[in-house]
Amino acid sequence: MRIITSITEMQQQADRFRQEGKSIGLVPTMGYLHEGHLSLIREAKKRSNVVVMSIYVNPIQFSPNEDLEDYPRDFKRDVELAQAAGCDIIFYPDSNQVYPGEYLTYVNVEEITGVLCGISRPTHFRGVTTIVAKLFNIVKPHLAVFGQKDAQQALVIKRMVADLNFDIKIIMAPIVRERDGLAMSSRNTYLSQGQRNQAAALSQALFEAKEKIVEGERNAAILKKLISSRLENLSDGEIDYIEIVETTLLSPVQTLAGEILVALAVKIGKTRLIDNIIIEV
Amino acid sequence: MRIITSITEMQQQADRFRQEGKSIGLVPTMGYLHEGHLSLIREAKKRSNVVVMSIYVNPIQFSPNEDLEDYPRDFKRDVELAQAAGCDIIFYPDSNQVYPGEYLTYVNVEEITGVLCGISRPTHFRGVTTIVAKLFNIVKPHLAVFGQKDAQQALVIKRMVADLNFDIKIIMAPIVRERDGLAMSSRNTYLSQGQRNQAAALSQALFEAKEKIVEGERNAAILKKLISSRLENLSDGEIDYIEIVETTLLSPVQTLAGEILVALAVKIGKTRLIDNIIIEV
Predict the structure, then answer these.
(1) Cβ contact B105–A129 (<8 Å)
(2) Which domain holds residue B212?
(3) Which of A64, A239, B139, B267 lies most in the core, judged by the most C-beta atoms within 10 Å?
């Protein structure tokens, strides 16, 4: 496995792979890898000749009041884990190169970035689409794999790719969960043991809702109330949102039909956690 | 010469060229070709194996009160002229393909799009950068050629390319002028004979200013006053702006130094004309 830190070198390497007829799979991450990230490497490996994982904590997707400074980092451990999972190249640029002094350009997907997580994080998705557009131009992948844990992110990127005609296939890979159901996240490390125990309620509430949907429940209000009832009494919990939307424009539905995203965000102490299920009804 | 109308077909053709080791030069246009456009084809031809000219009147770079409907079109003539100039492929997509029903994504360069032409055309450059980003992802060029007539556009695109890490070289080709100095533009066709005669004053004022700069004048206020004095008495003329700026952030200068853009926009009747000179002092 190689580590590339230069943007130009990454582009030249991508050109060489393409000239050799090799397909490139990209897994964009902010590092501090867990089993979720590693599953994305494996997914990319199945579908492409060369897997590039980018590790970059992207400042412009954090608001000033968020956890940019505290975001967990452990590059040495990341390298070992990525290599063991079959990654071929880690792209690890430094910030001065990514956003030089006079940086002025942003990619923005409208409407679907102003709902769900976009309400409490109004500039977040603009930061995500901008860095991902840059990574696409640097790594020149044939496909890119994103985790369903950040379902809105994956759907926003799919939209950007379609709208801007990036010739790149976007794969959304399933959520990897801890034994009690908690969706894996680098931010889980912020939780105290007591908070960690409470956090299991997020996925449990979603699974209960899923069961009701499978049994035939189609009323979004009833389902949201069920989820809310499981989350509103957590001692350290504060619900940010619980929403049931269709997956194209992320518009709320009253009656479930077609492909549905049930998504929620809950603050446990100071840690904001998200989780979701996608279900075809 | 081939005409390609399908986005997918253009992408596949671009992939084939690249796999064959051929370099691709892109000349993005809105058609109604004149000698200025043809000079861009020749410039692209000198520097690349294959020249693709796109012809597309991009609706999102026009404001509702502008001339989208009236913009001159003559595809048959364009095909003949492009072929004679050495163009290899015309990419001629239709609007439903370029902006399908639920289009949501825009590329925006901040700050330098809010000055000069950006003041009277506040959404113009966002439309330009968005379509050019799309064309870059569709045609996959190694280089793209833009005319200096739209100097701000070329500088904005250079900035987008640098910021978003597009691996594409941007060439700004010199303005091609009519015998009396008027910069060639598809919009010159809107002018009556009387207006056409007055329009020559734009370039003449710029040339006079250039002469003064060459002679040693460095005071921007004096130069702007000189240009203004040549333009303010045109019977059908209305000055939009006369500005002297540096070419990185397009900030106004008081004393000329380094690379300088002297740019102006004047309405002659209902037709808005622009012209400029770039000079290293």
Answers:
(1) yes
(2) 186-276
(3) B139
